[in-house]
Design brief:
Elements: E1 2-3, E2 15-20, H1 26-35, E3 41-44, E4 47-52, H2 54-63, E5 69-78, H3 82-90, E6 103-109, H4 118-137, E7 142-143, E8 150-157, E9 160-166, H5 188-197, E10 208-211, H6 218-227, H7 249-262, H8 266-269, E11 272-277, H9 280-292, E12 299-303, E13 319-323, H10 331-336, H11 338-351, E14 356-361, H12 364-367, E15 376-382, E16 385-393, H13 401-405, H14 411-434, E17 438-443, E18 451-456, E19 459-465, H15 473-491, E20 498-503, E21 521-526, E22 529-534, H16 548-557, E23 562-566, H17 572-579, E24 584-589, H18 592-604, E25 612-616, H19 619-625, E26 630-635, E27 640-641, E28 650-651, H20 652-664, E29 667-677, H21 686-691, E30 692-696, E31 714-720
Parallel strand pairs: 6-7, 6-8, 10-11, 10-13, 11-12, 13-14, 19-20, 23-24, 23-26, 24-25, 26-29
Antiparallel strand pairs: 1-5, 2-4, 2-5, 3-4, 5-9, 8-9, 14-16, 15-16, 17-18, 18-19, 21-22, 27-28, 29-31, 30-31
Helix pairs in contact: 2-7, 3-4, 5-6, 14-15, 16-17
């Protein structure tokens, strides 16, 4: 058992502290401590050890911008059982640090063979402290999880236990200016550490700072507080040391008063802090943080994209651009951000040459879109994600002029952009004449760029076809980067409006499962019909673009008819039938997701639920049981389905004969059945042509955006003979 005590100098005892900080910023924290005259330091992993007096403890708490917690170890000992943990904690002279009337909270970190979960370790330590005070005075302290008088930390590493008093009480990134539950994940002390690493500070000589994607304004507020010499601890009401027995209230108050008087006048300093963000919630959060930090009039934030904003820049004075852009943790998000990073790099090169630029990101591929050679990078953890903070000096020596000249586009990306522009130009008259809002602009025209690109108003929906195993994954990824970097420029679409998905064969319930939880819905129009489409959450969007002519055909034929839509998906064909004057419609599908979507589409177009109904059922079983008769039937079944909701596996090549005969039994004399499917090698059962009147209308069902892909579907009109 080893008890850690301050030095024996009763007048001014010294304490050995462990000051934790974000990983990667240990040297920044040490430099900060030295700047406050606290020089007796040693390095640790994610911490700096400091020997100092009580005034030094208060200085760390009040002035450190980088520290996470200030810990005072009071004992460490080895254990070989849970009982030894209890005995070791009970043996500490707790009366030197607290009284029985104080409230406590115990944080336990780490486990071993004897303490197998942290909750058990915390309970054993709590029992030991309680029994210590019961033995001393007959009273015991109460547990209070939030803001206790004394917070105790128990660290278990193999057989060694270290017990500490948490003098900060809670993480020191909580300055008090940002509301709890704020949307920004960037912690204040991490932001401050990166600013210091980038060269910002009280005497740095920099007077201009811009955050072009400012989020809730953390970089801006922290930078302003540094420049104005505002103590980051002044806004905090709760400190762990306030319930500690050795706390000196008078000394703390004197240091607080001194800190308040150190604040400088921003007008005299001529400082400029500017931020932009396109998200309304982010700007609202940043303005609230600025207000709570007392920096109104010092920091200016605007809801606009940095590309569109005219910043107030003094070209004669050096400054810093710093930002924490989105990282794109998933492949689709990553690819969608290529253009954003490229535009960010182009913007800093063209607007703030001679400045410093720091960017925090977890994605090395995206970082390479900045056409500047980084001087250094720092590995840090942000929100549990391993990131790097890249520092780019915006000097002629570091700027890749050849890349800038190409607008950060590789030759492959430029070639792809040229093809996109050519395709878009070719379709422009047709799109405008027919008021088409949703259409395909590219479909693997160039084999090495195996994607389909669909336009939904001012959005681009990109589907990557799964590459064969023979294709090098890195090469495929690089080509996808080129595709995503070309789209915004070639099609004049905002980079944030480009959505990527990987297309591969789906089966059973996979085709209905969510890819995302964003509920990214929008309303599009087609021949007088309104549809809800969702570009992010599912593999398909809710609207099959290749069937546009088929839906128009149904609309033209539907007047006065009883319409049946089998495998209805989102009932877009039923909406067209209603728009065309159908007397009634019935839409059948086995998916809850799609039948709910179908009902919303029908409701959106204000058709009567009484006459335009949706039913969830297995279409094959429904056909076997139904006795209703319809004048117009549309059937577009999947190529293959093994959903558990179906009574049997559906294979359209094998089963289409039975399926069509069942559907024709429900078709009135003189009626028409429109049958479509997407199986590329489909061959119609020859016997059907003997039993019914069959017309292949496939070639008539392609608009200009699909006329190059004649195998995307096959379509037939089937009637009873002699009808």
């Amino acid at each position: 058992m080893s008890t850690i005590l301050p030095t024996t100098d009763a007048e001014n005892p010294l304490y050995d502290l462990e000051i934790t900080c974000p990983l990667g910023l240990e040297n920044v924290l040490e430099a900060e401590l030295h700047g406050e005259g606290l020089t007796n330091t040693r390095f640790g992993e994610g911490q700096i050890k400091l020997t100092t007096d009580l005034e030094g403890i208060y200085k760390v708490c009040l002035w450190s911008r980088v520290a996470t917690r200030v810990m005072l170890p009071i004992a460490n000992f080895k254990i070989d059982s849970a009982d030894e943990l209890y005995d070791g904690v009970k043996a500490i002279q707790w009366s030197d640090h607290m009284s029985a009337n104080d409230t406590i909270a115990i944080d336990c970190h780490g486990t071993n063979h004897h303490i197998r979960n942290t909750q058990f370790g915390a309970v054993r330590a709590k029992d030991a402290i309680a029994d210590y005070f019961v033995g001393l005075s007959g009273e015991r302290p109460n547990v209070q999880k939030e803001q206790p008088d004394v917070r105790i930390a128990l660290r278990i590493k193999r057989e060694v236990v270290t017990v500490s008093i948490d003098l900060s009480g809670e993480s020191m990134h909580r300055r008090g200016y940002r509301q709890q539950g704020s949307m920004a994940p960037l912690k204040e002390n991490l932001a401050a550490g990166l600013l210091l690493r980038a060269g910002w500070g009280r005497e740095c000589g920099l007077t201009q700072l811009i955050d072009p994607m400012c989020g809730s304004g953390t970089f801006l507020v922290e930078a302003a507080m540094m420049s104005l010499d505002m103590a980051p601890g002044l806004g905090r009401q709760y400190w762990g040391f306030k319930g500690w027995k050795q706390h000196d209230h008078r000394m703390w108050q004197q240091l607080m008063d001194f800190a308040k008087n150190r604040k400088k006048d921003p007008v005299e300093l001529g400082l400029r802090f500017q931020g932009t963000d396109r998200d309304q919630r982010a700007i609202a959060a940043s303005r609230e943080s600025i207000k709570r930090a007392g920096l109104v009039g010092v920091i200016d934030v605007t809801m606009i994209s940095f590309q569109e904003h005219e910043f107030d820049i003094n070209s004669e004075l050096p400054g810093l651009v710093i930002c924490n852009p989105p990282y794109g943790e998933r492949i689709g998000d990553e690819m969608a951000l290529i253009a954003l990073y490229g535009q960010l790099g182009e913007w800093v090169v063209n607007n703030v040459r001679g400045w410093q630029f720091m960017m925090l990101t977890s994605n090395e591929h995206l970082a390479r879109q900045i056409p500047v050679r980084p001087e250094k990078s720092t590995r840090v953890i942000n929100g549990g994600i391993e990131c790097r903070a890249y520092l780019f000096p915006l000097t002629a020596r570091n700027i890749k002029e050849d890349v800038v000249a190409q607008s950060a586009m590789t030759p492959g990306a430029q070639m792809f952009a040229n093809r996109l522009q050519k395709n878009a130009k070719k379709m422009r008259k047709w799109v405008e004449k027919n008021k088409i809002q949703c259409y395909r602009v590219y479909d693997a025209d160039m084999p090495e760029y195996a994607v389909a690109i669909d336009i939904y108003k001012d959005w681009a929906h990109v589907q990557e076809y799964q590459a064969p195993k023979s294709v090098d994954p890195e090469k495929a990824k690089q080509r996808l980067f080129e595709v995503m970097s070309a789209i915004p420029t070639a099609l004049n679409i905002a980079e944030s409006n480009v959505i990527l998905k990987q297309r591969q064969r789906q089966s059973g319930k996979e085709q209905y499962e969510k890819l995302d939880q964003s509920k990214h819905e929008m309303i599009v129009e087609e021949y007088g019909c309104d549809f809800i489409v969702n570009l992010k959450d599912y593999l398909d969007t809710g609207l099959f673009l290749d069937h546009r002519p088929v839906r128009k055909l149904i609309q033209d034929k539907a007047n006065g008819k009883r319409f049946l839509n089998l495998f209805c998906y989102t009932a877009t064909a039923s909406v067209h039938a209603g728009q065309g004057g159908a007397r009634s419609s019935l839409s059948v599908d086995m998916s809850n997701t799609y039948t709910d979507w179908a009902r919303r589409n029908i409701e959106l177009n204000e058709f009567s639920e009484l006459h335009h109904q949706v039913e969830r059922a297995d279409c094959i079983e429904w056909l076997k049981q139904s006795r209703d008769v319809f004048d117009l039937i549309f059937m577009d079944p999947p190529t293959f389905s093994n959903s558990k909701k179906m009574a049997d596996v559906l294979d359209i090549q094998r089963d289409h004969g039975e399926l069509l005969r069942l559907a024709m039994a429900r078709l009135a004399k003189g009626g028409e059945l429109i049958f479509s499917n997407n199986y590329r090698r489909f061959i119609l059962d020859a016997d059907l042509e003997q039993e019914f009147e069959v017309k292949n209308i496939t070639n008539e069902t392609f608009d200009p955006d699909f006329d190059r892909n004649s195998k995307i579907h096959q379509c037939y009109v089937i009637k009873h003979k002699n009808s």
